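Why do we bother with holo predictions? Because pocket geometry can differ from the apo form. Keep that in mind while you read this record for thiamine diphosphate.
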Amino acid sequence: MELSGAQMVLECLKEQGVDTIFGYPGGAVIPLYDALYDNFDAFTHILTSHEQGAVHGADGYARTTGKVGVCFATSGPGATNTITGIATAYLDSVPMVILTGQVPRSLLGKDSFQEVDITGISLPITKHNYLVENVEDLPGIIREAFETAQTGRPGPVLIDVPKNIFIEKANYINENIEAEKSNVDEIDEKLIDEVANVINKSIRPVIYAGGGVIISNASEEFSKFATKGEIPVVNTLMGLGCFPRNNELSLGLVGMHGLKEANLAVTNSDLVIAVGARFSDRVVGKVNKFAPRAQIIHIDIDKTEINKNKKANLSIIGDVKEILNKLVERVDSKDRSPWLKEISQWKSEDKLGEKEFTAKNIMKTAQDILGDDTIVVTDVGQHQMWTAQYWKFTKPRSFLSSGGLGTMGYGLGAAIGAQVANPNSRILHITGDGSFRMNCNELATVTKYNLPTITLLLNNNTLGMVRQWQKLFQNERYSQTDIGNEVNYVKLADAYGIDGYRVDELDGLAKVLNEVAKKRQSAVIECKIDKNQGVYPIVPAGKPIDDLIEAKTV
Ligand SMILES: Cc1ncc(C[n+]2csc(CCOP(=O)(O)OP(=O)(O)O)c2C)c(N)n1
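The structure, written out:
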């Protein structure tokens, strides 16, 4: 069948089972949007306020479903606006296909209107990218892009399509291809035995679990493995939710803002079993002091991660789910109560009153009212770390946050993507005033699509996380972090047609949350909090993770 390039793009997306596209039109993609006009029943297209919001939307869609997120943008500024979102997805291994329009081939390389070399710009932040040169190549490229995005370690793939190729025609043959299995190496059974042996002999083991457990849909196998061996679990930011936080083996977040018992358990362990985690600097602090007396076992799908940041004594490369399935059969059922008892002594004392309007109490109130099924999406800063520390995540894919890139402005777009993908779920966007100012334009998208997404804004009138570093490490020289009180967020919400609330104590918050939850409508709830509330513990960058600073008063 003869089709235009634009029609081919849409047919290939149908082949891949895509039904949702996040995007923003412009000159170079007019033919693509024109073809979409004939396909309105096949696709839901979410038109955002900004291309960054569209990419984060595709990201939120992908992280909550495990499917490939799809985003369209035009050439030039449309394409460059996607860059932060692509880098965010790249660093957190999110499967995504971004389709950008490009100037026609005849105008390439001439500084034409809205021409940028987007394949050049995005090269280091995509798993792969393409500039399509012939319309005949388009289907093959799209199929390959989807395969690349989702196999092995997932990541974003960009396809740049010159405008003439959307218009030119070629023969298209539908190929309902089965997704190919990832070409990872066979798992070495002897190695599994060897690893199980080391685990069985360990007296003080800790599992250090990252986003790879969630990405490979291995939470069930993971839980069996941890509980059978009675091995305590610490989580990276990306790994939160892979193991229920209310399980007594769960020690929570590890690293720079890790909880004391999690960090000390790692430091005092004799074995660290890293599963789908990459020993990032935010976790390990000073590398040679990270678990200094422990053997390291590293399990990951990406062999380039092995020995990259921390040397492993033993490693298994492959799909985490498959590996855990094999490993669980071979680890012994253990009673590790002496080790667990030792760890419990390191639990930090709670110095907070239950009634104070602190971040911890705000999280507790919100979780009590909105429930454990809530999908929580954060921006970046103190509010993000408080969420990671205090929200008791019990399910995989229920916490979305920009871990690797730390992208302020990620939250609302990603929350929209999560809500579109999970229309019946409660999506809670937790943000700070600095981050919210970066992405609040997407409130228009919330209203346009009538999404019941709730924004919980922890307003401390400052760029809190940076201010906290200035307080602790720059002698309280607060340079350009107080962003003041110039925005009325209740009115801002109102301007977008959304109910806005302002609260400054827990009872007020509970009342508003109950009211909002009942209505299943979007809302912006501003919590006025003290700018001096800090995130504790904190480990100064590059220090050993047991060198933590604890809260003095809060
Ligand atoms: C796009 C971007 N710019 C700058 C930063 C640096 N940064 C990290 S946290 C932070 C402050 C965040 O402030 P806010 O959103 O108000 O959250 P809070 O820390 O107060 O909870 C800044 C500026 C960043 N991470 N991302």
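The CA atoms of residues 144 and 157 lie 10 Å apart.
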